[in-house]
Amino acid sequence: MGELMATKHEQILDYIETLAVGEKISVRRIAKELHVSEGTAYRAIKDAEAKRLVSTIERVGTIRIERKKKENIERLTYAEIVNIVDGQVLGGRAGLHKSLTKFVIGAMQLDDMMRYTEAGNLLIVGNRLKAQEYALRAGAAVLVTGGFDTTDTVKNLADEYELPVISTSYDTFTVATMINRAIYDQLIKKEILLIEDILIPLENTAVLHFKETISRYNELNEETSHGGFPVVDENQKLVGIITSRDVIGHGQTEPIEKVMTKYPLTVSMQTSVAAAGHRMVWEGIDLMPVTDDSGYLKGVISRQDVLKAIQTAQRQPQQGETIDDIIKSQLHLQSADKLTLEFRVTPQMTNAYGSMSYGAYTTILTEAASTALKTKNRKDSVLENMAVYFLKPVQHDSVMLVRPVILDITRKSAKVDIEVSFEDEIVGKALLTFQLLDR
Q1: Using one digit for the tens of pLDDT, what is the confidence trace for 191-239?
Q2: Please, which residues have CB within 8 angstroms of residue 267's CB and are 6 or more apart in sequence?
Q3: Which residues are CB-neighbours of 333 under 8 A, at least 6 positions away?
Q4: Model pTM?
Q5: Which CATH architecture has domain 196-312?
Q6: pLDDT tens, 132-166?
Q7: Strand partners, 26
Q8: Which fold has domain 2-64?
Q9: Rounded distance, CA 275 to CA 253, Å?
Q10: Domain segments of the chain as ranges
Q11: How many other C-beta atoms are found inside a 10 Å radius of the C-beta of residue 168?
Q12: Residue 317 per-residue DSSP state
């Protein structure tokens, strides 16, 4: 039965992809058209939402939206705007699937406002009916702030031009901040490398069948020199993995399913490359299968590819700043001979009492220790353990000195002691342990 469900699920996703952008989708419709249970239809729609094929909006339902490529992910659709601002759609529902290019805040004279408003924009405006009408005629959608309704004329225009008019109870400033934040989050997400960006797809992956024998493993090994292979059953579902370690001491005719490692660690297409890399380093794995939710093999990733991708990503300039970036930007080298870093606590890094938050503190400690290790052996490092055994509150705008000292370093790991001081008084002590990654 499990087999059937999985293929049904894929069928539904394929069907959703064929629908025209803007079309409405419901659990009932899918269940009826594809002869599946409502539960199966519901799960598939949720999956389609995760894959950004559809968007669900209160009082409107689920609609097919443009599939976003990695390059233009920072373009939001009007449907997503409705979700971000908890909005109500007053008219122009048929245009919810369209993407907006930029938003304009209507806080100026009408003529100026119309000079800035173009097709594909979103005009954010209060209860100004003339402006709403002009925007629609110019090909822009409208977001009405302050919870106002609009006139029938505007609603009819919206329907005619298929441009949404959305009402939200928030004020203009809050709405602009919310949309900016969403675009910013998209930018950061866009830069996070996922497994789907680096995986070796199934058609290029050497795979063994669990009924085959070790002699077939040896043949494949000579052909490809991979050393490890995923093992599948007759339905292409992953059942194990086999490496040279499993084969030692076994005869040529022994079936693979007897010697393979069952239930191997796997990752999905949406796992971040960094998370997968750390897992592979931790567990000492060189090859990791990539599967979908139903356990079907999609391809493999190799430790080398993962580490290469992480190192490339570290050298790329970022568009969106994460909290970690903001914290790291405040850390500066003060003197190189006895490695000392200077750090200024900004208001963003404080807790409710106005002193530096524990999260910011630990990020600085990790960053300072990594800096020390980089000057020593040029290796990348991954934090394994941190013991903060002395901590005094430091208030915002303080400039602290951070001194990392390497206590012990081997080929695989390192221990770093860190002392943090403010105005010649010690305000923090910690001991960090790292795993070192071979290039």
Answers
A1: 778 888 888 888 778 888 989 988 898 888 888 766 789 999 988 899 9
A2: 195, 275, 276, 279, 288, 289, 290, 291, 301
A3: 339, 340, 341, 342, 371
A4: 0.56
A5: Roll (3.10)
A6: 999 999 999 999 999 999 999 999 999 999 999 99
A7: none
A8: Arc Repressor Mutant, subunit A (1.10.10)
A9: 38
A10: 2-64, 78-191, 196-312, 323-437
A11: 23
A12: P
Q: Give the fold, CATH level 3, of 323-437.
A: Thiol Ester Dehydrase; Chain A (3.10.129)
pLDDT, tens digit (0-9, with 9 covering 90-100), for 64-95: 887 655 544 457 889 889 988 989 999 999 89
Residues in the chain, overall count? 439
d(CA 167, CA 86): 9
User: What's the CATH number of domain 78-191, 3.40.190.10, 3.40.1390.20, 3.90.550.10, 1.10.10.350?
Assistant: 3.40.1390.20
- Over the chain, what is the mean pLDDT? 85
For 339, the token pair is 């490695």
